[in-house]
């Protein structure tokens, strides 16, 4: 891969990063607050590519052809030794460099989906931190809209005291649970998808059944004192007593 080809790949990569950053596509890979850094990185890549192309093309422009005066008139005898050593053949850049096009094409043509049920099956449930000493009151609305992470934290660390008998509404996707029953899950990011970890909730009551994995649902229910175990890391999995549920489209922000 010569320098012109490298610049084109760099230009495509920068364009793909900028395209993902100005749409909701970037939310599949990083947290929302990182958008400005992605835009800046994409613009920097594009600028570097344009400068490289200009440096390569400038000598070919009209009026700039040929060797500048005074250059090349005093070549040393050993300057072209490399050509004779290799029979006049130039060096070839490793073709593996073209593999850099794969992530670019992935971003431009086939955007991978957000982490889902497969990631849930491979990683144990986790709840960042050890809970709060005093959980804030739930929203006044009925049912109270809270995140899967918030419910799991209150159910485990607060034993449901801050939930009481209130109805709560959670949104997540369906995954296969330890007892082959559906669970509600949501991925939590610290920075990007590479460090994503699942939060899993068991479902009792009118739990959704017969849905394929990665189906997004909105469930309404109440606190359940039932606790399960994750076979992946033996961590505790809280349960939710489901009263109603419905399918919903994949949210723009798939991670919590």
From TrEMBL:
One Pfam family per UniProt: DUF1980_C
TM annotation in the entry: 36-55, 96-115
Domain of life per record: Bacteria
Record domain DUF1980: where: 165-255
Chain positions covered by the region annotation Disordered: 65-90
Compositionally biased residues, Basic and acidic residues: 71-90
Stored InterPro entries: DUF1980 (IPR015402), DUF1980_C (IPR048447), UPF0703_membrane_permease (IPR052955)
UniProt keyword list: Membrane, Transmembrane, Transmembrane helix
Entries under PANTHER family matching the protein: UPF0703 PROTEIN YCGQ
Protein name: DUF1980 domain-containing protein
């Amino acid at each position: 891969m010569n320098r012109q080809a490298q610049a084109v790949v760099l230009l495509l990569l920068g364009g793909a990063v900028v395209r993902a950053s100005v749409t909701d596509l970037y939310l599949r890979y990083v947290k929302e607050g990182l958008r400005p850094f992605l835009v800046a990185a994409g613009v920097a890549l594009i600028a570097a590519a344009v400068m490289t192309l200009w440096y390569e093309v400038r000598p070919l422009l009209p009026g700039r052809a040929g060797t500048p005066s005074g250059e090349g008139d005093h070549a040393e005898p050993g300057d072209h030794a490399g050509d004779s050593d290799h029979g006049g053949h130039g060096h070839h850049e490793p073709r593996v460099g073209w593999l850099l096009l794969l992530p670019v094409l992935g971003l431009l043509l086939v955007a991978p989906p957000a982490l889902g049920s497969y990631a849930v099956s491979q990683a144990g449930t986790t709840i960042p931190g050890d809970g709060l000493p005093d959980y804030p009151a739930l929203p006044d609305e009925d049912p109270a809209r809270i995140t899967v992470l918030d419910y799991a934290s209150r159910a485990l660390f607060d034993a449901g005291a801050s939930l009481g008998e209130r109805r709560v509404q959670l949104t997540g996707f369906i995954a296969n649970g330890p007892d082959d029953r559906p669970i509600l899950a949501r991925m939590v990011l610290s920075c990007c998808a590479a460090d994503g970890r699942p939060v899993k909730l068991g479902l009792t009551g009118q739990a959704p059944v017969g849905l394929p994995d990665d189906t997004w649902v909105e469930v309404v229910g109440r606190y359940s004192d039932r606790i399960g175990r994750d076979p992946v890391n033996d961590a505790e999995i809280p349960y939710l007593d489901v009263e109603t549920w419905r399918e919903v489209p994949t949210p723009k922000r798939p991670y919590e």
